[in-house]
Amino acid sequence: MIYHRAMSDEILLAVADDVATVTLNRPDTRNAMNAALLRALAAVFDDLETRRDVRVVVVRGAGSAFCSGRDLREMEAREPQVDIVPVLRRVEASRHPTIAMIHGDAVAGGCELALHCDLRIAAEGARLGMPLARIGLVPGFALAQKLLEIIGPANTRHLLFTGRLIDARRALAIGMVHEVVAAADVEKATAALARTLADNAPLSLAGIKALLAQALAARDQVAHDDLDALIQAARRSQDASEGRRAMLEKRKPVFRGE
Fold first, then answer.
1. Is the dihedral of CA 27, 33, 36, 39 positive or negative?
2. Residue 247 and which of 3, 23, 56, 163 are 20 to 30 A apart at CA?
3. What is the DSSP letter of 138?
4. Per-residue pLDDT tens for 183-205?
5. Do residues 121 and 190 make contact, with C-beta atoms less than 8 angstroms apart?
6. What is the pTM of this model?
């Protein structure tokens, strides 16, 4: 039986053979995360938590990209926003194993969404990265923790300081993704991995997820109020506004350190 549901215009849900597929559905913006998408993403994971017909969750994007990160137009318009960190933590806390199918670029918040899934399969040609320094922003503390957890301090420094996107093969080499396949095979490879997980014992999967969550729980005890102040100062700066405008206008930003 296949179950389809539109959680909103921004998020689609399909369930078949114990596997739920959550699709970010803003292809015209390369699945940029606006407030509506973030709210719907959290809601769909709440919905999946009690489902008895789901053992594994696949997260993917519609169109050519996995996710291009936060919606810069919404940010520049100073519209009310949804904090991305609790949404990503909700994805991470899912009792079901999660797989990010990175068939296209996963950038900034989109890269973090993939990193907050348990496993990641990338297509040849997909790019990943955190180009926040190029638009005058600083990653949130919890997001930097996730990078350090997965790719270590040296690779995190290079990724954040340069702001460059890396290709799927480089992402595999530094442990950012688990598998790279030809673009034509990414759906098949993701389905095969999901099937492998779904065929395992449900109580074992739930126990492993709980074990890993508790093992990582100490990270939440690290004080970071001082860093949050720096992050917010960067977000409110003139450089951040210039960076967003430059990205939208496809030009090089002129930063002034203010």
1. positive
2. 23
3. -
4. 999 999 999 999 999 999 988 99
5. yes
6. 0.85
